[in-house]
Write a structure and sequence with these properties.
single chain, 257 residues, four-stranded antiparallel sheet, mainly beta
Length: 257
């Protein structure tokens, strides 16, 4: 039986895997500022991350080598990004520092999926159902307009207000899990409507990811050495469970083993 776990980046730049009940494994050189800003899982189990190797448009994208032995390879320049997510066919959907959306091949090459030179997106999420969503740079009251990619005509369709987000992840059924500008976590349906998944009060989350099994992970705002507490949603109990200390991170990617 499969069980959820996650890949993370901490504030030092180390990549770690974490188990829900605690414990994990270092997947990058100890103490080295190796990765930053975002990490995502591919359908073949490859972890893809934004490296600290600067490249026009952001930084080089690196992928874990098969077997997860702590070795990595990089997508050749000029590919670069600041945010990323991976589709069911292995396409790496990215947002670069200019706000452009690119669909990249793991071996190099790709195409732009937004107007060239336009600051178009903040974050991106690709679902196992093939859907691709962005938190765009257009704004609503509580965050940024969510838009869905239309591959048939290479366009983006906005989800009506009040749905908005600054971070977005997609579950295997195409349902969106988001963080808005208030730090609230929302489940949002592709047709509109949804449910609040975080408690009322101060900002609760800053990043979010969904694993291949539908498990939902967040980077909370509960500070710890190395970042913030990583939490897993318990849908059955309607609560967030923190991975025990000392686990901490600034970016998270849900995974299954």
């Amino acid at each position: 039986m499969s069980s959820p776990y996650c890949w993370t980046i901490n504030s030092v730049g180390e990549v770690w895997t974490l188990n829900p009940g605690g414990g994990g494994q270092l997947m990058s050189p100890a103490g080295e500022d190796f990765a930053m800003s975002d990490i995502a899982m591919g359908p073949d189990g490859t972890a893809w991350a934004i490296s600290t190797m600067a490249q026009k448009g952001g930084a080089l994208i690196i992928g874990s080598d098969p077997g997860h032995y702590g070795t990595w390879h990089k997508i050749p320049p000029p590919a670069a990004a600041d945010r990323l997510s991976v589709g069911p066919d292995g396409t790496i959907w990215t947002v670069n520092v200019f706000g452009e959306v690119w669909a990249l091949n793991p071996g190099g090459g790709g195409y732009i999926a937004s107007p060239p030179g336009v600051d178009f997106a903040l974050d991106i999420g690709a679902g196992a159902d093939g859907s691709v969503w962005i938190a765009s740079t257009d704004t609503y009251t509580d965050g940024n307009v969510l838009k869905r990619w239309n591959p048939n005509n290479n366009s983006w369709t906005a989800l009506p207000e009040p749905a908005s987000a600054t971070r977005v992840a997609i579950n295997p059924k195409g349902i969106l899990f988001t963080v808005n500008s208030k730090g609230e976590v929302w489940l949002i349906y592709p047709q509109g409507g949804g449910a609040l998944l975080s408690p009322p009060g101060p900002p609760f989350a800053q990043d979010i990811s969904v694993g291949a099994d539908g498990s939902v992970w967040i980077i909370s705002n509960q500070g710890r050495p190395g970042g913030d507490a990583v939490m897993l949603w318990s849908g059955a109990n309607q609560i967030w469970n923190a991975v025990p200390k000392p686990a901490a991170a600034v970016a998270v990617a849900g995974a299954v083993k």
